[in-house]
Amino acid sequence: MNILLTNDDGINAIGIRDLAKELSKIGKVTVVAPDRERSASGHSITLHAPLRVVRTDIHEGIEGYMISGTPSDCVKIALESILTEKPDLVVSGINNGPNLGTDVLYSGTVSAAIEGAIHNIKSIAISVSYGEDKINYEGAKHFSCNLIEIISTLEDGLIFNINVPSLNKEDIKGTIITELGIRRYNNKYIKREDPMGKSYYWLAGELIDIENKNTSDIKAIEDKYISITPLHFDLTDYKSLETLKNSKIEI
Questions:
Q1: Which of 50, 107, 184, 233 might form a disulfide with 99, Cβ 3.0–4.6 angstroms?
Q2: Where a divalent metal cation is bound, by residue (predicted)?
Q3: What gap in Å lies between CA 8 and CA 95, rounded to an integer?
């Protein structure tokens, strides 16, 4: 199995380095990832600046490339320029923090997986929730190969968003197939002044406690389960589409 591995935390992040070693047990891994953190970059791509590509070693037998762009840039340039063979799977992660509910719309991690699906490749985003102290990658590392081998048997072009509790493997209760929940924030832009006397704004905020359905990814993580949510990039609202077709709008 040929696996393209990327992330949005940067090529030197703990999560991607650990995952590269784990995935090398089940296939040939090539890492193409941003040269620095690109969290919350969404599905942005670089159009008005050159992309720099630097070859680097990840672990023994694992090729790596640092890209001066976004996670979506990394997948695009890997599939369209760097790799000589189409991978069987695109994997994004392990992300430092969860990608749950509506936050997937901002996530560089999930967007990288979506870019793989746009190229008709099975794609997986893996994230670890925040722990009480530091993030614990053990459970995510332990279950990653098994989850990926199962998902790799499914049809091409699918996207799976996986969130894992920040726990040791023995403390994780199992897996649940979920839907996206709802995440909302009390956002605040804090106004500050730089040393030159010019104003700038820094986004801060707190997560609002919302009761989510038992079938949501957010509830699964709260209950110490691995959440697996199938996604697609077709944003068409088909219910409204049929309503509009039947309304006979005329201008």
A1: 107
A2: 8-9, 39, 95
A3: 7
The pLDDT tens digits of the residues spanning 16-40 come to 999 999 999 999 999 999 999 999 9
Annotated binding residues, as ranges? 8-9, 39, 95
What are the tens digits of pLDDT across the range 139-178?
Answer: 999 999 999 888 888 888 899 999 999 999 999 999 999 9
Ordered domains of the chain (ranges, CATH): 2-182+213-247 (3.40.1210.10)
Annotated binding site for a divalent metal cation: 8-9, 39, 95
Q: List C-alpha distances in Å: 146 to 96, 152, 179.
A: 20, 10, 21
DSSP label at 244?
A: H
| Burial of 50 from C-beta contacts in 10 A (0-12 / 13-18 / 19+) | exposed
Q: Which amino acid is at 162?
A: I
